[in-house]
Amino acid sequence: MSRHLERLLQLDALIRAKQRQTIGNLALSLEVSERTIRNDLAFLRDRFHAPLKFSRIQGFHYTDDTWRLPSVSLSKGELFALTVGARMLESYSGSVYAQNLRSAITRLSERLPEQAWVDLQTIADERIIFRSGAEINLNPDIWHSLEEACQAHRQVQMTYFTASRNCISERKFDPYLLYIYRGTNPYVIGYCHNRREIRWFRVDRIRALDLLETPFVIVPTFNAKDYLEMIFQHEAGGVPQPISIWFDCPTAPYIRERRWHPTQEIEEHPDGSLTLQMVVRGLNDLKRWVLFYGKGAIVREPPELMQMIRDEVAIMNTFYTGETNANY
What we know:
Elements: H1 2-16, H2 23-30, H3 34-48, E1 52-55, E2 59-62, H4 76-91, H5 98-109, H6 114-126, H7 140-152, E3 154-162, E4 167-181, E5 185-192, E6 197-202, E7 206-215, H8 224-229, E8 241-247, H9 252-256, E9 265-268, E10 274-280, H10 284-292, E11 297-301, H11 303-321
Antiparallel strand pairs: 1-2, 3-4, 3-7, 4-5, 5-6, 8-10, 8-11, 9-10
Helix pairs in contact: 1-5, 2-3, 2-7, 4-5, 4-6
């Protein structure tokens, strides 16, 4: 019931937004099937008498803006769970749905005694704290345009800032899917016509975006599930290759407590250390991850990653031994 209720609230908020809503982009936004969206829309019409209509220009919309969900009943516990969920979304500054969800929760709170609602808000605000770390600046218009482009299979023209090269470029792009990594890293994945390959782009680094009328077809060999499973952290480049990393006894508990990759296997050693093995694409994020554990991690394979670690450590060493003349 709670999961269904939360989805109905999100669906209601999306329909009330200014963007044109279709079955496809509603399903994409809520990460459910189009059949589920059709069932939910029918549920709103049949059970709650929602004045829902669809038009080619407006998409799904309410013909009466004053209509609300008066028949939705929920316990204090359910409302509290939704309140905490809204706070969690708001902790990620790039969330484009947090305010809509919070507004919906406020309307639902009207069914509770005022003091009970005040108490719930106080607990959510003062006793359960969420922090996302570094904040991002996500343009909601660009995000929603990408949602529509993914749903309608329409190409986009975008102005993109590449942080690694500190430069701006113009790109024609076929957006396949949106992917949010660790809550504050929103990516769009698709085919880049400049590079002629599947690429990732940070949505918050897109400076401008135009939705084109040109349709695109997803590369037949692209499978989202298989593609994402080969990625470590969020690096997508490179050919899948086996990785082996040894972690010492003090570091091993931090490796055991999480599943870092779908392909991972852990070999335990008698002294309490372990070896982590997996098959991944790309080595740059892996290099940074290994360096995070310092002397507690040693790469066993592949040789290319071992050399990347050696080079990085050697350069870092010059910064602390006075061997460099660079002015830092």
